[in-house]
Every structure is written in structure tokens, then in C-alpha cells.
Amino acid sequence: MPTPLTSLRIVFTGHKDHGKSTLIGFIRHGLRPGGDGPGEACAGMVYADVVDHLREERAGGLTLETAQTFVEAGARQYALIDVPGHRELIRNMLTGATQADAAVLVIAADEGLRFQTRRHVLLLSLLGFKSALVVINKMDLAGFSQARFDSLRAGAEKLLCANGIVPVATVPVSAAAGDNVLERSTRMPWYAAPPLFARITELALPVPPDSCGVRFPVQAVYRFDGETVVAGRLLTGKLGNGQTLTVYPGRQEVSVTGICRFPPDGRPAVAGESIGLTVDGSLPERGDVLACGSAPLHVTRRCRGRIVWLAEAPAAAGDKAVLRCATRVNEVVIREVEERFDSLRLRRIRDTGRLAQLDVGTVNLESRGRMVLEPFALTPGLGRFVLEQSGVCVAAGTVL
Amino acid sequence: MDRLDRLENESIYVIREAVQRHPRAAVLWSMGKDSTTLLWLCRKAFLGRVPFPVIHIDTSFKIPAMYEFRDRLTAEWVLNLTVRRNERALAAGMNPATHPTITCCHALKTTALKLAVDELGLNAVLLGIRRDEHGIRAKERYFSPRASDFLWHAGEQPPELWDLYASAEAADHQRIHPLLHFTEIDVWRYIGREGIPVNPLYFSQGGTRFRSIGCQPCCIPVTSTAASVEGIIAELETSTTAERAGRAQDKESSYTMQKLRSLGYM
After folding, report:
1. Which of A196, B25, B45, B138 can pair with B131 through a Cys bridge, CB separation 3.0 to 4.6 Å?
2. In this complex, how many residue pairs, one in chain A and one in chain B, have their CB atoms less than 8 Å apart?
């Protein structure tokens, strides 16, 4: 078997008890039996146990905490990310979803679209997912009915499209028995398209955005053996010796005199690499962003963002928080809660003034210091942020 | 960027973030393949050095070849090694022959780590655990805040969003897990690619090898002819047994690892 050259991390979302863990367990067990799973295959095996490893999870038949399991197929490795489907555990769903490159939405054929189905789709949209694969699970409980499948598919497609997410395919499965998961099922002859895992292997790989030139948030400055090294991760673009960069927010210029790695190799750096730089010019510090390219970075004291509010106490105008974006930290005030999304009816509600726990909405933030941001759609790494109060995360958001 | 590069660069980011945000950090080294890979990644992050203490939690029951390997690499990589033992428990006769594994692991590893965190005044401890290693570890975060009682409340962890790891100002210290996204086979592929030194115990001698190494009485070698990194990779590609199947600790009950980890085990 060759070393897989690429990896794809996929989050399985949807309402509680719609079969996310069972589906992941079946795929993992089918492609890689044993391992860290529940042991040898046996009759009556509970596939969900592959990812539900906590005593409380197995006893209660639910997922509490996000987990990841890994399979390899062809030239790819897949990380399958399980998340809980309960309203109370949205923070764990977000933890899993923010690690993913792609998303699957699981809907049980007997229950159909439920409240957390809608909420998860709204959150996927907030987190920037542009497409999703849909699974209509538990087809056995709907008599493997094509009519039921068609109606649920239409509902799922409408929901995704309304949230700006393209449904790439919809597959009818029964995860517990493996129908249409790894292989085509004989129990749904009306379904002629590929099974779920074949659809997963067709999902596009993540591509680093490369339209706006170099973006290099400074993580730290090291002084080793008389040499000063600016450490960070290159989000976009390419970096080599002799390149001139602008340091934001101060807008002074520096030129790159070396790309530092261990062991040293002198190669230019590509997007995604954690490297060090030696520079000529005034020294940047943590939180600065080094950039070059056609579009300048936004240095601003105000920004508009879409957030999901996680704290128990509601958010309202005047609330203070610490905004963390890449390696930069700014104290901000919520100036206005512009609108709130009603995930049940897919409506936007204006003039609400506040966001309750788990509400998604649009807010205007103001900072005392200068923020260095870009719209999430342009540079995800400089357009996603968390808000903290007393060191506790109270919101996740993206810059509009 | 290929996949091993992606894994490596993500780990370096986590390590740098941990040390930048928690200046009193240290890394745990058990001399196994994972924590040795973690040390290698720390050297990459800090351009050839490990600029913080390297702690070996010594139960005193490790396989002798592990101590030899430790001393060789400490000299070669110029590590600031600190060896910590729970001397009180050892003096009182704690050992794996007379005590249940869970009791012994807790006393000689978790409690020893607790003493080290206190004595060295650490606010971050880097560990080489991986999600793929055990179903309980599959639920860990990169940054895992702990109170001074060390307890880990799986299911009640703070959210970890993208790479904006939790500040957790109220925590006593953070456990940092930079290798979380590596699988066992990834670690071996990476060791092979980078030429990272590993303990000879992992290679087959007389038809057996260790797949996971720790305390001598609690680790059983597996039947194997794999005598090189390439041989191990080929073996793992077809293996269907768990990595830690040779560990006594996981055999007592399905939930031993959960119990150990909720009490602060690494």
C-alpha cells in the first residue's frame, strides 16, 4: 500500500440519534477492522462503540464528546469526525466541525429534518462550508421507500441551498446493516448511483486560498545564538529570500533575508508551512501580520462579523470581550446586534438587540486597538475569530 | 504540500503556540516512538533545540534498553532532562507485581507527574498522545486545561475552535497534545522519512518485537518479523490488532483508560 499523499477530514453532522456514530463505526470497521475499536467483529456488534468510547456514551447510547477515527483508501487518508447531535453539546459539535475540510449531513428517514438538523446546517454555513454530502439514514425504518427518500432529499436540498451550501449528492443508507455505505445495497434497487463511501472519495481536497498574495501572522520572535527569528505559519502565497513584506498594522517594510527550518534547507516556503524568517528592517512582534500582494490588509477598529453565541448569559450591545484572530488579540465591544437567524424558519430577524445562547447572528464590533482582519471568504485564517470573556470562549465567528 | 508535511506543520504550530502562551512549559518523554517524535518536532519548532525541560516520569520499572536510549539521545540532542519519580510510593513498595495496574499507573505515573508540575511550577505540559491510539484519547483536545486536582472531565471540555486554542485562564496548567492528528502508521512513516532515532526494542529480535513500550512487567512483545522501520510500516498496513493490545493496563476493563485519564493520566 502506498503512503497516502493527501488527507481529508470529514465531519458527520445532524440531529441526535440519526446515526452519525453508527455510520462512522461501520465505515471504520469495514475498511480497518479491529484497531482501537471495540475489538473483534462479532454478531450484534454496536458500530457506534467505535467512536463512543466513554462509559456514559455507551450506557446512554449517545455521543457526548467529538472523536476522530482514521481510515485509508487509495491515495487518501480520511479522518472521520463524529460530533454530538444534542442541543446542549453544540460546543463539541463546533469543536469537531472547525477541524473539518468537508461535511456530511445525516438525516434519519423515520424522523426527517429535526431542529438540530437545521441548526447544524446553519452552523456549517457560519463556519464557511460551501458544500455537503447528504445521507438519508435508517432507510430500513422507512421500508426502503423511494418516495420517502425523494421527499427527504428535496427537504434537505432546500435547507442546504437556503444556507448557501451546495448538496453534492444524497445517498439512502441503512448504517446499522451497511446498506449503500461501502457497497451498493440490493434492498434499494431504485437507487442506481454510487454508495456513500464512493461519494466520500469523490469529495474535493482543501485548497489553500492563493488569490491575495502572502499572509504570514507572526506567532513569536525567537532569539537563538545571536540570531533573531520571526516564527509563524504562512497562510497563503509563497515566501523566499529577498522578498519585501509590509508589517501590519504598522505598515513598515521589511525584507526577508532567510527562511529558517531545522535542518536548514534554504527552500522557499509554501502555504501551510510553519517556518521562521530572518528579516532586515524593524522587527515585527506577535500579532502582527506580514503581507504582500495586490490587495492590502484591512487595518480597522470596526468589523462586522457573524457569530454563534455560546455563553449562558445573552449577548447585547455594550458587552465587552477579547477577540482572538490568528495570533492577534484585541479588546472589543459589541456595538450592535444587527440581526439574528431563526434556524427553524430560516428567517432573519432584525432589531432583536440580543443573542441568546446558541443564537447565530450578525454583530458590529469595535476595538480600541487596531485589528488586522480579512473577510473569511478571502483568507479564512484571518477571517475567523473567537470571543472570550475572562479567558472563556463565548462565541465563534467569521468576518463578513 | 503532502500529507506528512501537513501533519508536521500543524504539530509545529501547536508546539509554538503552547510555548508562546505558556512560558513555563515542559515536554514529557517516555522514550517511546511518539514522545521521541514529539521531541524531534520540538527541535523543528525551535530550529534545532528544545528550549525547555524534558521530563522523564520514571516508574523505575522501564525496560533497561529504554534507559540506555534515554541517556544516548539526551547527550546527542543536548536535552535539559529532568527525571522524576514518586519516591514515596516506591519506598512504600508500589510495584506492578503486587498492585493492580490502575493503582500502580496512577501512583507511579500520574502522581509523579503531579509532583513534577508542582515542583517545576509548570503551566503547560506537552505530551505525545494520539487520537488513533485509544478511543478515549480520540476525544482529547490539542489544549486541555486541567485544575490542580488534574481531573479530566471528558464531555465537559471547553470548545476548541479552529487553531484558536482555549485560553483557560482559570486552569492550573494545560496539557498540550501536538501529535493528536498522527496515526500509528503516520508516526512510523514520519520516523522513516525524517530518520528519527527509535529504540531498538521496536524491531524484531527472535520473532517478537514491542509495538508499544513502557514498564517491563506490563508490556508484552508481539509476534513479528519486522526488523526495520519499513518492515513495521508494511506490518501495520495489514494489522487488525490494537496498538496497545500488549498493554496490561487496557485489559483489566474496557474503561480502565477512561478511569486513568479522568484522574489525570497521560
Report:
1. B138
2. 167
Among candidate residues A241, A261, A292, the one where a domain is terminated: A292
Residue A55, phi then psi, degrees to nearest 5: -55, -45
Q: A380 and A348 in one domain?
A: yes
Give percent of chain A above pLDDT 70. 95
- Compute how many other C-beta atoms are within 10 angstroms of the C-beta atom of residue B71: 12
> Which set of grid coordinates corresponds to residue A272?
501551510
- Which residues of B fall within a CB distance of 8 Å from A34? 239-242
| ipTM of the shown complex | 0.95
In tens digits, chain B (266 residues) has pLDDT values of 889 999 999 999 999 999 999 999 999 999 999 999 999 999 999 999 999 999 999 999 999 999 999 999 999 999 999 999 999 999 999 999 999 999 999 999 999 999 999 999 999 999 999 999 988 899 999 999 998 888 888 778 999 999 999 888 888 899 999 999 999 999 999 999 999 999 999 999 999 999 999 999 889 999 999 999 999 999 998 887 777 777 776 655 667 888 888 888 88
Residues ≥6 apart with Cβ < 8 Å to A45: A29, A38
- A68, A262, A265, A382, best to mutate vs chain B, most B CBs in 10 Å: A262
Q: Does domain B3-183+252-262 have CATH number 3.40.50.620?
A: yes
**Euclidean distance between the first and the last CA atom of chain B, given in angstroms as a whole number:** 32
Q: Looking at CA atoms only, how far is residue B241 from chain A in angstroms?
A: 5
Considering only the beta carbons, identify the residue of B5, B9, B158 that sits closest to A233. B9
For chain A, what is the domain count? 3
A152 to chain B, minimum CA–CA distance in Å? Answer: 31
Query: Do A386 and B161 make contact, defined as CB atoms within 8 angstroms?
Result: yes
Among A240, A272, A292, the domain-final residue is A292
Give every strand in the sheet of B173-176, ordered side by side: B81-84, B54-57, B25-28, B124-126, B173-176, B143-146
Chain A positions in Cβ-Cβ contact with residue B6 (cut-off 8 Å): 7, 272
Q: State the nearest Cα–Cα gap between B258 and chain A, in angstroms.
A: 7
